[in-house]
Amino acid sequence: MADLVTRKEWGALAPSQALTRIASAKGVKVHYTGGHVSPAIVDDHTRCIALVRSIQRMHMAGGREQPYSDIGYSLAGCPHRKVFVGRGPHILPAANGPGLNSGHYAVLALLGNSGFTQPNDDLLHAIVDAIEHLRAHGDAGPEIKCHRDGYPTDCPGGPLTAWVRRGAPRPATTSASTSWTEDLVKDLPTLKPGTTHRHVKTMRALLFARGYEPANLHSTTYGYSDDDLADLRAAVDAFKKAHKLAQDGVWGDGAWKAALT
């Protein structure tokens, strides 16, 4: 079963006009983002959310020669084995190329041609999860092809093309999403400066236990005063820097996993 990130959860804009429904498709075509994708995305799921948002805005602004009415992909898979709902099942995608969209759904892998270029196992699992979701809920047929199979492009890049040519098998390794840390983290909140939540106290305690000692261990507010905000953010960013995560003051999936393992 796909671990879906709904449009509401990733902050999708509403389509600029009504989308076209389709009854079924012959299968799916696999895409990648291309361009540079920071390797830090593997350890910070907030980067996945930001990337999907930016892709939608780029598509709707005309970054693919003409403006799309929505993100062009049906679903998108990320390296945390999450599946983002784009246009979704039974909706005509826009990413396969002129005249090619009615034949296949479009599944995007959050993978670049520089930076993060080799799909990890959870990204491959997410793509397969997306394909199975489209078969179950969108009447997708058995075909699994690459974007380049119908359109003159390098997409989805060498590693994913080779994987699709092998039949898009699931990795033999157990997905990290089944580990106890992943199961725990999916129920934990993303904490930002100004957040009040009982797990702010948990975050403070974890920082203290890992040697990044905030002055206050008991407040459930991320910054109950200016001094506390500066102190706690400094501890958060120092911890995240040590674990090669973005120093943005946000305590999300990557920080929770790093602190709990």
Report on the architecture of this protein.
The strands form two sheets. A six-stranded mixed beta sheet has the order 1-5-4-6-2-8. It is built from eight helices and eight strands, in the order E-H-E-E-H-E-E-E-E-H-E-H-H-H-H-H. The longest helix has 18 residues. Strand 4 and strand 5 form a beta hairpin. It has two domains: 173 residues, 3-Layer(aba) Sandwich (Lysozyme-like); 82 residues, Muramoyl-pentapeptide Carboxypeptidase, domain 1, CATH 1.10.101.10. It is an alpha/beta fold. The model has no long low-confidence stretch (mean pLDDT 92). It is elongated.
Core attributes:
261 residues, alpha/beta, Lysozyme-like, Muramoyl-pentapeptide Carboxypeptidase, domain 1, two-stranded parallel sheet, 8 helices, 35% helix, elongated
* Biggest β-sheet: strands ordered side by side in the sheet: 1-5-4-6-2-8
Query: What's the CATH topology label of the largest domain?
Result: Lysozyme-like
Q: How large, in whole angstroms, is the Cα Rg?
A: 20 Å
Which structural category do the helix and sheet elements fall into? alpha/beta
Which ranges are low-confidence, i.e. pLDDT below 50, for 5 or more consecutive residues?
Answer: none
Shape: elongated
CATH homologous superfamily of the largest domain, by name? Peptidoglycan recognition protein-like
Mean pLDDT: 92
Straight-line distance between termini: 26 Å
Strand fraction equals: 5-15%
Number of domains: 2
Output the helix-strand order. EHEEHEEEEHEHHHHH
Helix content: 25-40%
What CATH architecture of the largest domain would you give? 3-Layer(aba) Sandwich
How many β-strand runs?
Answer: 8
Number of helices: 8
CATH class of the largest domain: Alpha Beta
Largest sheet: 6 strands, mixed
